[in-house]
């Protein structure tokens, strides 16, 4: 199955669909199970790092240069989101308050 991401034009729909496709391929899961796996991995820094490795492994195995560039774009975007999640762990856009 071809990926949907266009490295020159970000689409959240393509980004999410391609994550599901790549995790399903790498982990040998159904799309529904892959989505649940992504949700599980997205909960903490260790899981997000594992998700980045899964996507990175898919990129290393890809032999089609166009598909490899799509995987690289997905990984770059996912890495950026992971950094943002580390900075704002409660999803508020603001660092966690020590008294919260």
Tell me the layout of helices and strands.
Layout: H1 12-27, H2 31-41, H3 45-61, H4 65-87
Task: Provide the descriptors you would attach to this structure in a database record.
globular, mainly alpha, disordered C terminus, 4 helices, 100 residues
Task: Specify the structural class.
Answer: mainly alpha
String of helices and strands? HHHH
- As a percent range, the share of strand residues is under 5%
Multimeric organization: single chain
Spatial extent as radius of gyration: 14 Å
Q: Report how far the terminal alpha carbons are from each other.
A: 45 Å
Total helical elements: 4
Poorly predicted regions are 92-100
Topology, number of strands:
0
Main sheet makeup:
none
* Envelope shape: globular
Mean pLDDT: 86
Total domain count: 1
Instruction: State the helical fraction.
Output: 55-70%
Task: Summarize this structure briefly.
With 100 residues, the protein is mainly α.
Characterization of this structure:
The longest helix has 23 residues, at 65-87. The model is unreliable at 92-100 (pLDDT under 50). The protein has one domain. It is built from 4 helices and no strands. It starts with 11 loop residues before the first helix and ends in a 13-residue tail after the last helix. The chain has helices at 12-27, 31-41, 45-61, 65-87. It has 100 residues and is mainly alpha-helical. The chain is globular, with a radius of gyration of 14 Å.
């Amino acid at each position: 199955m071809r990926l949907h991401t266009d490295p020159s034009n970000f689409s959240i729909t393509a980004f999410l669909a391609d994550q599901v496709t790549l995790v399903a391929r790498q982990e040998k899961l159904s799309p529904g199970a892959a989505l649940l796996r992504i949700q599980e991995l997205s909960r903490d820094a260790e899981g997000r790092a594992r998700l980045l490795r899964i996507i990175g492994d898919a990129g290393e195995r890809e032999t089609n240069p166009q598909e490899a560039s799509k995987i690289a774009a997905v990984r770059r975007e996912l890495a950026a989101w992971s950094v943002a999640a580390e900075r704002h762990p409660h999803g508020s856009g603001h660092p966690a308050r020590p008294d919260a």
